[in-house]
Design goal:
Largest sheet: 4 strands, antiparallel
Number of helices: 3
Strand content: 15-25%
Mean pLDDT: 92
Order of helices and strands: HEEEEHH
Structural class: alpha+beta
Helix content: 25-40%
């Protein structure tokens, strides 16, 4: 589910997210993509790490929504429902991946 970005793609995506967040510093920690949906796990250095969600061209379009914060194991189904409610047409597999990663990732 995790996808690789070339250096050029990483720079382009970082610049797009920095534009939207109006920040100078940003690091892409992880990138997930399936079909037309993508999730980018970012570090902004000014707040908690966050996930930004795209439907379409993540290099040019604005992100749809953002998630930040911790979650408990008991919340996995609620997180999956949240992402499906907030990101139109996200594939089920990507929604499940996000819910799992939100709970079990180890930064």
């Amino acid at each position: 589910m995790s996808d690789k970005l070339s250096a050029t793609q990483r720079d382009s995506l970082q610049n797009n997210i920095k534009r939207q967040l109006k920040t100078e510093r940003l690091n892409i920690l992880e990138f997930f993509k399936e079909q037309n949906s993508s999730i980018v796990y970012i570090e902004t250095y000014g707040a908690d790490e966050a996930f930004v969600f795209y439907s379409g061209d993540e290099f040019k379009d604005d992100f749809i929504t953002i998630w930040s914060g911790a979650a408990e194991i008991s919340e996995e189904k609620n997180i999956e429902k949240w992402v499906k409610d907030h990101v139109p047409y996200i594939p089920d597999r990507l929604a499940r991946c996000f819910a799992w990663y939100t709970i079990y990732r180890h930064d």
